[in-house]
Known about the structure:
The protein has about 270 residues and is α/β, with parallel strands linked by helices. It has helices at about 60-65, 80-95, 115-120, 140-145, 175-180, 190-205, 220-230; strands at about 1-5, 15-20, 25-30, 40-45, 55-60, 70, 100-105, 125-130, 135-140, 160-165, 170-175, 210-215, 235-245, 265-270.
Amino acid sequence: MRIHARTWTGIASAEQLVIETDGERIVSVRPDLAAARRGDAVVCPAGSLLVPGLHDAHCHLLEGGLMMAECDFDGADALEQVGKALRDYVCAQGGSAAEWVLGRRLDETRVRVTRHDLDRACADRPVFVWTHDLHSAVVNSAALERAQISDDAVNPPGGRFERDEHGRITGVLRETAAHRVVERIAPPSAEQFRQALLRAQTYAFSLGITAVSSSVRGDMLASYRAFAESTERDLRMNIWPVCEEFQLDGERFETVNESGYPIGTLKGFVDGAL
């Protein structure tokens, strides 16, 4: 393929260039001297700029794609806005009383939310909302009931149930306390994983991101690999299986040496906000 475009290569200022490609590789870049153009050439319109694709060096592609389908509380800085966002989402998505309502990006530095606030907007379905840092969550009363968490619950190791002045659980769950509820939520299906990765890929391309390095939990590795090996994947992926327990014998994985999705790096981390 031959492309004629005003181009920024990252080295100097933008200039008009001709780029020749062969499959997925660029084979030549040279000044566009306004010579005769082939009929099959791609000519970028005036005012456009061709730039190298960006590589996001640390992302969570699948989790991000899943969250894009959830109720988004980004920008909410008042309880009225939180309630409206939740009511609008439930109305638009529909679903039965048995289905969980999942949310994301609730910023506790801008608005404080408890189970009672969520109850006023959605009392008949369990609601689980991650805060903006993904280290805490807020749930409604139906979610606490579904997870069998009562006011006399003991804080789990590495976590905490926030309580009011009377010792009652507020619905704000820190760290591993949030996982007590997550365990009650059915995991996404294979098709939901596929749709999430497609959603995330489309969003990445909209930002000029053409490659990602993504840390991947062991239970999601098969979904990443199925997507990576499919004809639907256009994004380059560098996949890092995650080690949280440092039981290295149990964390071993099969390496993959494919140019579009190498799997060869183990990511270990110790994390937390308490």
